[in-house]
Amino acid sequence: MQKLAVLLVEHNILHLLILYKTTTFAYDLNTTTPDPLKMANSAAPPPAAPSPASKLVRIIVVVILALIVLFGLAVLITWLIIKPKQLVYRIDSASVHNFNLKNNHLNATFDLLIKAHNPNGRMSVYYDPIEVSVAYDGQTIAFNTLEPFHQPRRNVTRLDATLVARDAALSGALSRDLRVQKKAGNIGMDVRIKARIRFKVGIFKLKHHTLRISCSPVKVQMSSLKNFETASCDLDW
């Protein structure tokens, strides 16, 4: 009987241990471990609403970008419609008369024929007074100003320019070079042209531009009867 009682007690104790472990395991399964990240997110305060100042800055930036895009499109469309072409200039004739070089001082008269070509079909050109000069080895020796004029579309205009050198002082080296070239029958010189111009498109006149033209070398003939080699010109805006 004592052994049976001991066995019953041991059986009851074992049964209680098994029941305790089963209950503990079930509790562990039903109980979830809290996620620290979720707890942090749930505990974080909501983001602050943007201030009126930041909204205003964003609107200004968007408006500026939109204006830049619209301006670029307007320029592109205008260019595609007008299709502007470069103005073309050339010296068709150049001669010198009354050439007198004495004591390193020059007196001479230069006659130039300047060809101005406007190839644009939608733009005419308004010229303010045109400054024309003749230079030798970087030194200007004659100068004159031509009258303003209007050049129509797809037009070629020829300008007669007479430039007079009056007692122009030269260095000894320049004087010697000019005498040598005079004997050869022509003098290699630079012709420079400067003018303020405005383009007219339809009824609209655009803003002024300063046009600088350089023609070099121009072989100025000592006699107008000799054949002249036309000289092309470079433009600089």
TrEMBL record:
Q: Which UniProt keywords apply?
A: Membrane, Transmembrane, Transmembrane helix
Q: What is its main location?
A: membrane
How this chain sits in the membrane, per its record, is: Single-pass membrane protein
Family annotation (Pfam families):
LEA_2
What's an example GO cellular component term for this entry?
A: plasma membrane
Membrane-spanning intervals of the chain: 56-82
What subcellular compartments does it reside in?
Membrane
Claim: Membrane is one of the keywords in the record? yes
Q: Does the entry feature the keyword Transmembrane, yes or no?
A: yes
Q: Where is the Late embryogenesis abundant protein LEA-2 subgroup domain?
A: 115-215
Which one GO biological process term can you cite for this protein?
defense response to other organism
Name recorded for this polypeptide: Harpin-induced family protein
Species assigned in the record: Populus alba (White poplar)
